[in-house]
Amino acid sequence: MRLFALVLLAFGLGACESKIASHGHTIDEVELAQVLPGTSTRVDVLANLGQPSFEGAFGSPKIYYVSQVMVEPPGGKKATDSRTIFVITFDKNDVVSEIDLLDETTGNIVAHLDATTPTPGDTYGFVDQAFSNLKRRRNAE
After folding, report:
1. pLDDT per position as a tens digit, 11-20
2. What's the number of domains the chain is made of?
3. pTM for the model
4. In angstroms, rounded to a whole number, what is the distance separating the alpha carbons of residues 29 and 6?
């Protein structure tokens, strides 16, 4: 019986560990060294770094490579541990003109709001929803 309790305790303590998840495309120094402003073209960048996370909108000459590490402590809320964004800007000839690094120390801080956006029907109870559905069905016929 004691062995069973010890095994159960070991499994329980093993589950009390933070979960770490990486997302995006991590660019290391070797890959970044191959992209040279004034020399490398868009084709070179895509060949060395792969497809970007996203591109600038409305004909923007920028592409973005985003990497993020999320940590979820036991019984806690998932939070961003680190975020790195490489912004590569091209000139009109598709040659790299600038490489910028944004991380949690250089980026803007975005406030998270816990408020919810009200939507029609979110306060209906079961009876209200049932009669609402019957009313819609009758109007459709």
Report:
1. 555 556 777 7
2. 1
3. 0.59
4. 46
